[in-house]
Specification:
696 residues; 36% helix; seven-stranded mixed β-sheet; alpha/beta; 30 strands
Length: 696
């Protein structure tokens, strides 16, 4: 389907006439569209019945009295192609193909799905093997089961690859404002990327929620995500199929490509997509982004009527690097005048029970606190009473109302958050939304959503807008270079590595005239990953005599282990000075995600610490620096415990020399791993590397 063919999508999503085709599987969809209050023409096709639910049954598409804007198709897979062909000839606006039995079942199904695509032409099709669509704004449902969902006339557009998850979302007790719900199924014709673009242009859509099992067309997906970012429509993504079992289930469910987890997460960060780890966080973050939007800083002002609530806010915020900045001494003095004597002024602020629920007492406290603190998000913790215990509900509502009124003066996100998810009932949630506040359910979920909203804001304001991702170079064959050859290639591009010389036999002093002792002796082959475990590294060699002795000993050891290869070499190099820090760098050409970079703390403990970050190339200085600061070992670079710190600008310059080397296709570098990269105050040095090069 063409990306810009939105006129036909409008016909499908805003259909004024709908035909249902099938038998028992269309009973519920017909009832659901009627329950939604559909006022247009409704037709039924079933060649074996005269009537169905009171509607006349037509035998074929050709018999319909008019051209339908939309069709809901629930017939056996073998009959789908003919019906799609007939609908296309009648210029139908689009189809929800509930029928299953296509690529999700294997080779036979894949062939059938290819025929479906050809039959569809430019007619949009959701599915096959899907639940369909719900348009909450215009009250249209082409949906196979009873469904719920709340909409104030605007909200999130949710696109999922799981029909059951989409159905479950409509039934949740979270009052997430919804504009659209789409269960995509196999995406044979209409893909996720088409709907991202389509919904991004809708004024009623405040954010996009995407459940992903796998992506069919990574380049089109990236293009659509960039489009949404430019239009200011946040995307919140929940990806399943990360485990080995999950990936296998994904392939059998939708036939999509699940992809590498770390690279997928890196792609999300690059595209400004908010990735979440579970279904609950998915909805709460989507709710926050739909109602509150982006957050300009990590600064939060919190209110509770309980010391325990204040502590829970502060504890979790600290663990995810959000800030509750305290009040100045002068501000505390001003607030003390408004608070009961038992209150202690802090942020989060426990305003205490003596003024609980008293509007003319709490409103001045909230207003003055917001005036003095200058936070960019305001949160009040409120756990409303259960149904039937209504005598105290008014107190909670009074505090919520005065909080909303105070925060509205400063045009910042205002959040009423319950400690326990169930402690804000439906009536209260919807009242809060009508008053411009987000009814968030769970302290952890709330604070994670705030952090995500801040990260999205930073991405939107970035001076380096994303235009594309780098594709991998095409090659039929590649070879791995040994360490010596790899470092020589880097040195030709002015990338620093120790001076070195090959050794084939006992060596004389004059051969080392350009190399100073102490030296390191190494044996390297492209397939020897851990030289130290084989004894293929000797350090701190201080003389020719010692070098020759170590060479003979190493040679015997390597040959005894049967590790010697024709591509392997013995060489010695100057021993590098001790660094401030050691980094690990990896560059690879990924068939799905393009060119990928991994950076982390390096050395012999790389695998143990697993302190790495994955990035999709190309990358900006701002992005690379941000990922470096996220490493646990970054404090070493900053000068841990008063040690020398690294010049960050010089470090970035040196890292980008390596990035540029990998991206420059004239170097024919398919992959490059450097471990360690010694980092000094103003320079770096490649100590060990494995390079893979394209064979011309």
């Amino acid at each position: 389907m063409k990306q810009n063919n939105f006129s036909r999508l409008d016909r499908l999503f805003k259909a004024k006439s709908v035909v249902f085709i099938g038998g028992k599987d269309i009973f519920t969809p017909i009832n659901e569209i009627k329950r939604r209050g559909f006022k247009g023409d409704l037709w039924v096709i079933n060649p074996n019945r005269s009537k169905l639910l009171g509607y006349k049954c037509y035998k074929t598409v050709q018999e319909l009295p008019n051209t339908p804007d939309a069709a809901f198709l629930a017939v056996p897979a073998a009959n789908v192609i003919q019906v799609i062909t007939d609908l296309n000839k009648r210029n139908c606006g689009g189809v929800v193909c509930y029928s299953a039995g296509f690529k999700e079942i294997g080779i036979k199904g894949k062939k059938l799905e290819k025929r479906l695509v050809l039959a569809a032409g430019q007619m949009p099709i959701i599915g096959p093997n899907c639940y369909g669509l719900i348009n909450y704004v215009d009250n249209l449902a082409l949906w196979p089961f009873a469904h719920g969902g709340y909409s104030p006339g605007w909200g999130a557009a949710i696109i999922t690859q799981s029909g059951m998850l989409s159905s479950d979302i409509t039934m949740t007790q979270r009052s997430i404002p919804l504009s659209y719900m789409v269960s995509l199924g196999n995406q044979a014709v209409l893909g996720m990327e088409h709907l991202i673009r389509y919904f991004s242009e809708k004024n009623s859509v405040t954010a996009l929620g995407i459940h992903v099992e796998g992506i069919n067309d990574i380049e089109e997906f990236c293009s659509a995500a960039i489009y949404a970012l430019k239009l200011g429509k946040p995307i919140v993504m929940f990806k399943t199929g990360k485990s080995k079992i999950g990936k296998r289930l994904t392939e059998s469910h939708t036939g999509s490509l699940s992809g590498d987890n770390e690279a997928f997460s890196a792609l999300c960060k690059k595209l400004g997509i908010i990735e979440v780890d579970d279904a609950v966080q998915f909805l709460e973050t989507l709710k926050f982004m739909s109602i509150c939007g982006p957050v300009k800083s990590k600064r939060i002002l919190g209110f509770t009527c309980s010391g325990g609530g204040a502590t829970m806010l502060a504890d979790y915020a600290e663990s995810i690097k959000l800030e509750f900045p305290n009040f100045s001494r002068k501000a505390k003095a001003e607030l003390n005048k408004l608070l009961p004597s038992i209150a202690t002024v802090s942020n989060p602020l426990d305003y205490t029970t003596p003024i609980w629920g008293v509007l003319d007492k709490t409103l001045p406290v909230f207003s003055k606190s917001l005036e003095l603190n200058k936070a960019d998000t305001a949160i009040i913790v409120q756990d409303f009473p259960s149904e039937g215990l209504d005598e105290s509900e008014n107190y909670y509502w009074n505090d919520s109302l005065s909080f909303i009124k105070a925060a509205s003066e400063y045009n910042i996100p205002k959040v009423v958050c319950s400690t326990f998810p169930e402690n804000i009932n439906k009536k209260i949630r919807q009242k809060l939304i009508r008053n411009g506040s987000a009814p968030m359910q769970g302290i952890k979920e709330t604070l994670l959503a705030v952090r995500s909203a801040y990260e999205y804001y930073i991405k939107r304001k970035s001076k380096n807008p994303i235009s594309k991702i780098s594709r991998s170079i095409e090659f039929k064959e590649s070879i791995f270079l040994n360490e010596y050859a790899g470092k020589e290639s880097l040195k030709k591009k002015d990338i620093s590595a120790p001076d070195s010389i090959k050794i084939q036999q006992p060596i004389e002093s004059k051969a080392l005239k350009n190399i100073s002792f102490p030296v390191v002796l190494k044996y390297s082959s492209p397939h020897l990953l851990h030289k130290t475990e084989l004894g293929a590294v000797r350090t701190n060699i201080k003389s020719i005599k010692e070098l020759n002795l170590e060479f003979q000993n190493m040679k015997k050891l390597i040959e005894k282990a049967e590790a010697f290869e024709s591509t392997g070499v013995y060489f010695c190099e100057e021993m590098a000075d001790a660094p401030i820090a050691e980094l690990f760098l990896s560059f690879r050409s990924d068939p799905v995600f393009g060119k990928v970079m991994v950076v982390g703390m390096g050395g012999i403990y790389t695998e143990i610490f697993n302190d790495t970050k994955t990035l999709i190339l190309p990358v900006s200085r701002q992005e690379l620096l941000y990922h470096l600061t996220e490493l646990k070992g970054y404090e070493i670079i900053l000068g841990y415990r008063n040690k020398i710190k690294v010049n960050k600008n010089k470090l970035l310059n040196n890292l980008f020399n390596l990035v540029d080397f990998f991206l420059d296709e004239t170097n024919e570098c398919v992959s490059l791993e450097i471990n360690p990269l010694f980092v000094y105050e103003s320079s770096v040095r490649v100590i060990d590397c494995v390079m893979e090069r394209k064979v011309s």
